[in-house]
Write a structure and sequence with these properties.
Blueprint: H1 3-13, E1 18-27, E2 37-40, E3 45-47, H2 52-65, E4 73-78, E5 90-98, H3 104-114, E6 119-124, E7 132-134, E8 139-140, H4 148-160, E9 164-167, E10 170-175, E11 181-185, H5 189-198, E12 204-209, E13 222-226, E14 242-245, H6 250-263, E15 268-271, H7 275-287, H8 292-295, E16 298-299, H9 312-337, H10 344-347
Parallel strand pairs: 11-12, 11-14, 12-13, 14-15, 15-16
Antiparallel strand pairs: 1-2, 1-5, 2-3, 4-5, 6-7, 6-10, 7-8, 9-10
C-alpha cells in the first residue's frame, strides 16, 4: 500500500523530522518484499519492514539519523544467528533522513498519486543526485541530473508494471494505484464489519446502501454511496471487480446479484445467506432466462471453509479471506496470459 506517501507528506509539511526506511534489496529469504517501508520519527514508527531484530536495529539507526543531512544511506543486514533472525537472507536497507519541510519530490509524488497517475521514484543510492519522479510524459526534479538512460529505464519499468527494483546504483520504485476494486452492498452490522476488514487492504472500496444517513465515518479508500436503487451502482464498477452483497432486503440482494451475474466480467460475487436462500434465488433467475453456468459463479453462503462463527467480525474475516483467494487466483491467471507481467493500468491504455 502507498499510504506512506500521505503520512510522510503530513509529517514533513508540519515540520516534523523523519527518516524513511525502505527495503532496497533482498538476497535469499526475508520477512518483507523489496519496497516495503516504515517511517521513523522522534515519537513513533509508521509501517513495518518485517518486525523482529531487523526492524528494531533499523529503528535505532533511524532515530540516530533524525535531523541529519538529507543524504540516503544504504546498509546491509545479514539475517542470520547474529541478528537473532533465522530467515537466512541478506537485506539492503535504504535510510533517507528528511529534516526539512515537504521535499519537492514528495510534493510531486503526492499530487500524482492523488490523481491516480502511475509514476516511478528514482533514487541515486550514492547520494550524488536528488530524487526524481518519472511519469510516462514528465520528469520532476533537476533535469540536469536526470540522465536520459535513467529516465528510459524508469519508463521501461513503468510500462512493464514493475514495482520496486534496483539496477546498479539506482533504485526504482513504481507507484501504481491498486486494481483491486471491491463493492460492498449493505451497511448493516455485517456490512460495516466487512468494510472495516477490507479497508485495511490495498484496494478501492465502494460501499452502497439505500438508507439515509446510514454511514458513520469511512476510511480514506472507501467511497460511501447512498442510492435509492443500489443495483444501478453495479454499472459503475470496473471489469474484474469483486462484489459482496449483504443488504437489509432480499429484494435488493436479488436485483444487485442479477445485474452482477448478467454483467459477467466480475472476479467474485458473494451473497450473504443460507443454502435455501441461494436455491430460491437460483429458481427465480432460471425462470427469468439466466443460464446454469452463470449461476455457478455465485458464491452463497460466503466465507472460507472452517470458519463457522456468525458474529459480524467472524463473517467479515471469512468473507475478506475468500475475496483475497478469488483475487489471487484471478491475478495468477492474468499473469499467465501476460507473461511479461504488464500492469493492468498500463494494459488498458
Amino acid at each position: 500500500m502507498n499510504e506512506w506517501i500521505d503520512e510522510l507528506s503530513d509529517l514533513t509539511a508540519a515540520g516534523d523530522r523523519a527518516v524513511l526506511v525502505t527495503v532496497a534489496g533482498i538476497r535469499g529469504s526475508a520477512p518483507r518484499e523489496v519496497g516495503a517501508k516504515m517511517i521513523v520519527t522522534q515519537d513513533a514508527t509508521l509501517g513495518t519492514i518485517g518486525g523482529g531484530q531487523l526492524e528494531y536495529q533499523c529503528t535505532r539507526l533511524a532515530c540516530d539519523m533524525l535531523g541529519a543531512v538529507e543524504t540516503p544511506s544504504l546498509r546491509k543486514f545479514p539475517l542470520g544467528s547474529s541478528m537473532g533472525q533465522c530467515c537466512g537472507g541478506v537485506v539492503d536497507i535504504l535510510f533517507e533522513p528528511i529534516a526539512t519541510q515537504l521535499p519537492s519530490w514528495l510534493q510531486n509524488l503526492r499530487a500524482l498519486h492523488g490523481q491516480r497517475q502511475p509514476a516511478v521514484i528514482v533514487t541515486d543510492l550514492r547520494g550524488e543526485t536528488s530524487k526524481h519522479i518519472v511519469t510516462a510524459e514528465d520528469v520532476f526534479g533537476s533535469s540536469e541530473s536526470a540522465a536520459s538512460e535513467i529516465v528510459a529505464m524508469a519508463r521501461e519499468g513503468l510500462e512493464a508494471g514493475r514495482t520496486a527494483h534496483r539496477i546498479d546504483d539506482w533504485f526504482f520504485e513504481g507507484i501504481f494505484g491498486t486494481d483491486l476494486n471491491i463493492a460492498v452492498f449493505g451497511a448493516g452490522h455485517v456490512g460495516s464489519a466487512v468494510v472495516r476488514s477490507l479497508s485495511t487492504l490495498d484496494c478501492n472500496l465502494r460501499w452502497v446502501d439505500s438508507r439515509r444517513n446510514i454511514f458513520r465515518g469511512t476510511p480514506s479508500n472507501v467511497r460511501a454511496i447512498e442510492s435509492a436503487e443500489p443495483a444501478l451502482e453495479v454499472a459503475a464498477m470496473p471489469p474484474r471487480s469483486c462484489y459482496l452483497v449483504m443488504t437489509h432486503s432480499h429484494a435488493i440482494d436479488f436485483d444487485v446479484c442479477d445485474r452482477i451475474l448478467r454483467r459477467g466480467d466480475f472476479t467474485y460475487c458473494g451473497l450473504i445467506g443460507s443454502i435455501s436462500k441461494r436455491r430460491r434465488f437460483e429458481k427465480r433467475y432460471l425462470a427469468q432466462g439466466m443460464q446454469e453456468h452463470d449461476l455457478e459463479r455465485l458464491v452463497c453462503p460466503i466465507g472460507v471453509d472452517g470458519i463457522s462463527g456468525k458474529k459480524p467480525a467472524e463473517i467479515a474475516v471469512a468473507a475478506a479471506a475468500e475475496v483475497l483467494q478469488a483475487w489471487e487466483v484471478a491475478t495468477r491467471e492474468t499473469r499467465s496470459v501476460y507473461p511479461e507481467n504488464v500492469h493492468p493500468l498500463m494494459r488498458s491504455r
